[in-house]
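Data deposition worksheet. Section B asks for the primary sequence of the deposited chain exactly as it was used as input, without tags or linkers unless they were present during the calculation. Section C holds the resulting structure in token form. Section D is free text for depositor observations; keep each observation to a single sentence. Incomplete worksheets are returned to the depositor.
Section A, Depositor: J.P.
Section B:
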Amino acid sequence: MALSVLKKFLTVIPTLIGASLIAFALIRMVPGDPVTNLLGERGGDPAVVAEMNQKLGLDKPAWEQYFIFIKNACVGDMGTSIVSKRPVSEEFWSRFPATLELSVVSMVWALVLGLPFGILAALKRNSVLDYAVIGTSLIGYSMPIFWWGLILVIFFSVNLGWFPVSGRIGIEYDLVSKTGFLLIDSWFGEGGFLAFKSAVKHLVLPALVLGTIPLAVIARMTRSSLLEVLGEDFVRTAKAKGLSHYRVVIIHALRNALIPIVTVFGLLFGSLLTGAILTETIFSWPGVGRWLVKSVEARDYPVIQGGVLYIASMVVLLNLVIDFMYMWVYPKMRSK
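Section C:
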């Protein structure tokens, strides 16, 4: 058990180094640079450009810049934004609650709908309901997020006017954010229920878009996993003992079928943190994804490097937690 835990922790270091190296290299392959972006294409006096490059440390060789970044990152210093002049860590943590809130709500509704649909499809195998769940899941998994988001905006926001197009809460509510999660701050803040209602309405469409793919994956995964378990010998034994259908399915079969779903849940939640970029851009959601998109446009190297490393660290940590949960639920994995 201890050896398995140690092996998993040792995989963290090369993973994070690889993520940081890819982020560092790819942004420098994009045409343009931070100094040109700040000065403009026609404001580039060679002396001024050289001075700014030296001030920002961009005059050093790329390998030296990377090792300086890694050395500082090891002590928690992700650098300073070239555009805003604020520490990258400060900017990241001020935006991360918005991304986390959106991801959690998206995953909650994906679980609330995905698990029951998957269970019903397994219990009604080869029925109309089963085919409907499979077909709908396939469509939901195949739809591009940007297209799906725009369709929902046009229908529910522009035509019906039910939900706002952008932001996290109405501009009439001047809330003091204490937790960073507006659902909590609006409920306990001065705005009361009306502010909470506004925060919920702003959250519905982005969460619906972001949670569509996880919903489809969970439904199909639950169906296939439950069907596999229902064919096991211990399930037939439970039925032969005269146990109720509910007890056989929920207590015996579903509990064992949830083992692979736990692993998929961790992967999906990690993908929500990284895949919120398109959703946040479409709905002008002030989270980490939209922040990174703007940083790419501005060629803000420290923000991109630090932001990607932060997200990669969280995804790796989440996967470690899921692995440990899997080892706890499924003892055979402890020896691997």
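Section D:
The two ends are 8 Å apart (CA to CA).
The chain has a mean pLDDT of 81.
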